[in-house]
Design brief:
By secondary structure, the chain is α+β, with helices and mostly antiparallel strands. Helix content is 35%, strand content 15%. α1 crosses α2 and α3 packs antiparallel against α4.
Length: 151
C-alpha cells in the first residue's frame, strides 16, 4: 500500500501578528468565513495587499485595544474551528507570572458561564464578548449584563 501525502490547508490557516514596519496588527490567510469572523468579532478591516487580501486593525488603536481585539478575534476563530496563530504579545489573556491565578479564575468563570448557557448565541457572547463589554484588565472577566463579576 502506497502512502499518500496529506492535504494541508495552509491557505486556510490564519496568522494574527503585529507588523514590525507599520506597527499595524494584521491577520493573514484564512477563508472568507474566517475573514467574516475577524471583521465581526475583532473589528478587522479588509485590505488589498501585493500577494492578496489581508485584514488589519484600524490605525491609531491603543496597544490594549489591539490586544483585546486580536484576542477576541482569535477566540471567534477557535470557536468556529479555524486553525490560527496569535502572536503571544497580542494575547490579552497572557499574564505576567504574578497574575497566573487571576487568569485561572477568569478561565474557570468563563467555563461556568459557557456551561450555563442555553443557546449558541449565549455561548458566543461568553466566549467572544464585544470589546465594548470587555474589561481592559488582563485576567479579569468581561463586564456583561449577565450578573456580577467574581471577586
Amino acid at each position: 500500500m502506497k502512502q499518500t501525502e496529506p492535504d494541508f490547508w495552509v491557505l486556510e490557516y490564519v496568522t494574527i501578528t503585529k507588523d514590525p514596519r507599520s506597527g499595524l496588527v494584521v491577520a493573514i490567510g484564512g477563508t472568507e468565513k474566517a475573514a467574516d469572523i475577524l471583521q465581526r468579532t475583532g473589528g478587522f478591516l479588509s485590505a488589498a495587499g501585493p500577494r492578496g487580501d489581508y485584514h488589519r486593525l484600524p490605525h491609531g488603536l491603543p496597544v490594549e485595544q489591539q490586544r483585546l481585539k486580536a484576542t477576541t478575534a482569535s477566540h471567534g476563530l477557535l470557536a468556529a474551528g479555524h486553525s490560527f496563530h496569535l502572536d503571544p504579545a497580542l494575547n490579552a489573556l497572557a499574564t505576567p507570572d504574578g497574575e497566573h491565578e487571576a487568569a485561572l479564575r477568569y478561565l474557570a468563570h468563563l467555563a461556568e458561564r459557557v456551561a450555563a448557557a442555553e443557546t449558541s448565541s449565549e455561548v458566543a457572547e461568553d466566549c467572544c464578548p464585544s470589546p465594548e463589554k470587555s474589561s481592559s484588565v488582563p485576567g479579569s472577566p468581561p463586564v456583561t449584563s449577565k450578573g456580577p463579576r467574581p471577586a
